[in-house]
Amino acid sequence: MKPSTGHCIFCDLIRGAAEVSICYEDATAIAFLDIQPVNPGHVLVVPREHYEVLQDIPGDVGAHLYQAAVKLIPVVQTAAGATDMNIVVNSGAAAGQNVMHYHIHLIPRKAGDGFDVPLPFPGSPMPHRQQLDAMAARIGGMLRDPLRSGGKKNG
Ligand code: AMP
Ligand code: ZN
After folding, report:
1. Which CATH superfamily is domain 9-118 in?
2. pTM (2 decimals)?
3. Ligand 1 atom, smallest distance to 33 CA
């Protein structure tokens, strides 16, 4: 486990030191209602142990969180009376992560609810195919040569 570098509100919730509304828990994962939901039923799926971002998480824990999310998604969607769902991970401060304890947002959605994840990003240009191919080749090369990638730390 990567120890928390400072105070972590999610670690507080997990050890029962603050109010929390839990909808699912097992030995590895816990899911609770977001305190400031986009829509009713906005759930966070969280590892019990403190990891900041996805690449910090051991592979089996990451897979378990994904399985817990997959189990919860249809139930949360029905409970919330929603038709659709955004599954969001903000990974790192520049990507909008505010709580530095990894979590998966399950955000129930209804048409016209006013929330938006604006993709494709308005005004973003479409690069030439050569630029897309060059980036694909760069990523592929790094995957084949982990020493160049600085990539995944855990199995
Ligand atoms: P992020 O910006 O992706 O790190 O999302 C953090 C989420 O945690 C936000 O949606 C917050 O509303 C939520 N949050 C912060 N504190 C609490 C808390 N005490 N209980 C439940 N959710 C929280
Ligand atoms: Zn934590």
Report:
1. HIT-like (3.30.428.10)
2. 0.92
3. 21
